Amino acid sequence: MTDVVVAVAVADGRAGGRQGGSSTPPCAACKMLRRRCSPGCVFAPYFPAGEPHRFGSVHKVFGASNISKLLQEVPVEHRGDAVSSLVYEANARMRDPIYGCVGAITSLQRQVESLQTQLALAQAEMVRIRMAEACAAARRSGNGNGSSSGGGSPSSMSDCKPTPDLHMAMDQHNVMELEYATLWY
C-alpha cells in the first residue's frame, strides 16, 4: 500500500501544470498556445482552464501578443474589466466583423428612439382622448340641465375645438428630422 501512495505522488509531481510542481492545470491561454504556464502568467487570473472559449475568441480577434502587452500596461485593479471588455468586443466582432459592438449599440439606440416616438404618440393620443371626453362632458352638462355655470354658452363651447391629427404632426416632425440628418451624415 505504501508503494501505491508513492506512485501516485510521483504521478502528481509530473502532471503538466505551472512550474514548481503544482498540480494546478495551465490556464486556457497557455493551453491554447501550447506553452508552460508559469506562476506569474499574466493570462492565468483572467482566462481559467475551464473557460477556453473566452481566450479563443479574444486570441482570434486581437492576438495573444497584443493581449499580453495590453494587460501589462493596464493597472492590476482594472485588468478584470479590461479582459471582460476584450471578451465582449471579440464576441461582437465574431458576430459582426465590420461593426463589432458599435453595430449592436447603434441598433439598440435606434430601438430606443423608435420606442420613445411610440411612447410620445401614445401619450399625445391619451391627452387628445381626455380632452375630447372633457369637451363631451361639458357639452352634456351644459345642454342637459340648463345650469347657470355657463356650460352651454357659446363662449364656453369655443374651448372645445377638434384637435389636429397627431400622426400628421408627428410625420412632419420626422420629415424635418430626416432633412436634418441628411445634412449632417
Residue share in β-strands: under 5%
Work out the helix count. Answer: 8
Structural class determined from secondary elements: mainly alpha
Coarse shape: rod-shaped
Helical fraction: 55-70%
Task: Characterize the largest beta sheet: strand count, sense, and whether it forms a barrel.
Answer: none
Which residue ranges are poorly predicted, with pLDDT under 50 across at least 5 consecutive positions?
Answer: 1-21, 145-157, 180-185
Mean of pLDDT:
76
Instruction: List the helices and strands in order.
Output: HHHHHHHH
The radius of gyration computed from the alpha-carbon positions, rounded to a whole number of angstroms, is 34 Å
Number of strands: 0
Q: Could you state the oligomeric state of the chains shown?
A: single chain
Describe the structure.
It is rod-shaped and about 95 Å long. The longest helix has 44 residues, at 101-144. It is mainly alpha-helical and 185 residues long. Helix 3 packs across helix 4 (64-73) and helix 3 (52-62) packs across helix 5 (79-95). Mean pLDDT is 76; it is low at 1-21, 145-157 and 180-185. It contains eight helices and no strands.
Q: Could you give the topology of this structure?
A:
Blueprint: H1 2-13, H2 28-33, H3 52-62, H4 64-73, H5 79-95, H6 101-144, H7 154-157, H8 166-184
Helix pairs in contact: 3-4, 3-5
Which labels suit this protein?
disordered C terminus, mainly alpha, 8 helices, 66% helix, disordered N terminus
Task: Give a summary of the structure in a few sentences.
This protein has helices at residues 2-13, 28-33, 52-62, 64-73, 79-95, 101-144, 154-157, 166-184.
